[in-house]
Structures are given as structure tokens and as C-alpha cells.
């Protein structure tokens, strides 16, 4: 996992159809265009984390990144585990992630 994070670097998230898996993981890296695509299993989590950080801390997202994250958020809703994790984090931090709370 550390090597994947190192490969991710500051690459932009994207949809990369037809790209080969990296190190046997469902994680795609396109070094030429500096873009990555995480596994479907974590796209929603990645989207909600980035949308939350942008909203909470004023981190600017490009229009394309924001649209992609919103699409992933809708396509891959929070799991029961993610919702419970969010409740636990909110109890510690004192605020919740509205991108998770808004989903029934």
C-alpha cells in the first residue's frame, strides 16, 4: 500500500478505462498524464473524503475533479462500515461529514 501511495503522488483522480492494474491491485496509474483511478470499492470513500476536505478547509477542486467526485459519491454510496466510522470520527472531532450524513 505504501508503494501505491508513493505512485499516486500528486496525480489527479480520473476514470482510466482499459488501463492495466498496478502491482496486481485494482488501482490504475497513468504516469504520462499524471492521473490515477482507485478501485471501485474505494471510489466513494475517496470522493467523500476529498469533497469534505474541500468544503471544510476551503481546498479548491477543479470543476472536473468536483464533478468526478460527485459522480463517484452517487455511484458508490457509503457502506454501513463507512457510516459507522463517520459516527465514531464525529464523536471525537465534534463535527460530521455532511457527504456521508446526507445519504440515508
Oligomer: single chain
* Biggest β-sheet description: 3 strands, mixed
- Approximate shape: globular
In percent, how helical is the residue content? 40-55%
Model regions low in confidence, pLDDT < 50 over at least 5 residues: 1-5
* Helix/strand/pairing category: mainly alpha
Family: Belongs to the EndA/NucM nuclease family.
InterPro entries: Endonuclease-I, His-Me_finger_sf
EC number: 3.1.21.-, 3.1.21.1
Pfam family, one: Endonuclease_1
Write the layout of secondary structure elements.
Elements: H1 2-8, E1 12-13, E2 28-30, E3 35-37, H2 40-57, H3 63-75, H4 80-93, H5 98-101
Helix pairs in contact: 2-3
Which descriptors would you attach to this protein?
EC 3.1.21.1, 3-stranded mixed β-sheet, deoxyribonuclease I activity, 5 helices, EC 3.1.21.-, mainly alpha, His-Me_finger_sf, disordered N terminus
Compact overview of the structure:
With 104 residues, the chain is mainly α. It has 5 helices and 3 strands.
Q: How would you describe this protein?
A:
By secondary structure, this protein is mainly α. It folds into two domains: 2-37, no CATH class; 40-101, no CATH class. 54% of the residues lie in helices and 8% in strands. The protein has five helices and three strands. It has helices at residues 2-8, 40-57, 63-75, 80-93, 98-101; strands spanning 12-13, 28-30, 35-37. The protein has a three-stranded mixed β-sheet with strand order 1-3-2, with no helix packed on it. The N and C termini lie far apart (31 Å). The model is unreliable at 1-5 (pLDDT under 50). Its EC number is 3.1.21.-, 3.1.21.1.
Amino acid at each position: 500500500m505504501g508503494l501505491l501511495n508513493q505512485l499516486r503522488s500528486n496525480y489527479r483522480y480520473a476514470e482510466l478505462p482499459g488501463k492495466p492494474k498496478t502491482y496486481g491491485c485494482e488501482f490504475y496509474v497513468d504516469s504520462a498524464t499524471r492521473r490515477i483511478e482507485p478501485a471501485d470499492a474505494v471510489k466513494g470513500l475517496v470522493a467523500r473524503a476529498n469533497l469534505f476536505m474541500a468544503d471544510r478547509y476551503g481546498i479548491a477542486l477543479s470543476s472536473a475533479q468536483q464533478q468526478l467526485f460527485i459522480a463517484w459519491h452517487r455511484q458508490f454510496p457509503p457502506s454501513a462500515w463507512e457510516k459507522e466510522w463517520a459516527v465514531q470520527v464525529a464523536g471525537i472531532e465534534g463535527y460530521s461529514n455532511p457527504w456521508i450524513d446526507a445519504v440515508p
